[in-house]
Design goal:
Helix 1 runs antiparallel to helix 4, helix 2 (about 25-55) packs antiparallel against helix 3 and helix 3 (about 60-70) packs antiparallel against helix 4. The longest helix has about 30 residues, at about 25-55. By secondary structure, this protein is an all-alpha fold. The protein has helices at about 1-15, 25-55, 60-70, 80-100, 105-125.
């Protein structure tokens, strides 16, 4: 998941550096949106339910779910979306992830499940 986070952060930075009339903005925005859609779906289907059960931190998981709804925006709001995603990533990595170790969640098993589902979704959602 952290690899996905770094990748999308880099794409947002790249997007923000492009000039307004750069023809690469559209394809990069689509790439970002596809990655976020898949990432959000695997988190919602697999990671959050298991993290909720492991940590009992309903507030943090509920907030993440609301943030995911905000992440499903397109080009005109991509800069705002970038800030929201960066905030979401920071909370997951600094607050939720540290709770998982003492909760004894099987991170290797969940990671494999996430990777498998991500691969399936990427294949299904490719245009």
């Amino acid at each position: 998941m952290e690899q996905d986070h770094r990748e999308v952060e880099e794409w947002f930075d790249e997007y923000n550096e492009l000039k307004e009339d750069d023809n690469r903005k559209g394809s990069l925005a689509e790439k970002i949106c596809l990655a976020l859609k898949v990432h959000a779906q695997i988190e919602e289907e697999i990671f959050y339910p298991q993290a909720r059960q492991a940590t009992k931190d309903n507030d943090l998981i509920d907030e993440a779910a609301v943030e995911h709804a905000t992440e499903k925006l397109y080009d005109a709001k991509i800069r705002f979306l970038g800030e929201m995603v960066k905030h979401h990533i920071k909370e997951e990595e600094e607050e939720l992830f540290p709770e998982l170790v003492p909760a004894k969640m099987d991170l290797d098993a969940v990671g494999k499940e996430l990777a498998k589902r991500k691969e399936e979704l990427m294949a299904e959602m490719q245009v």
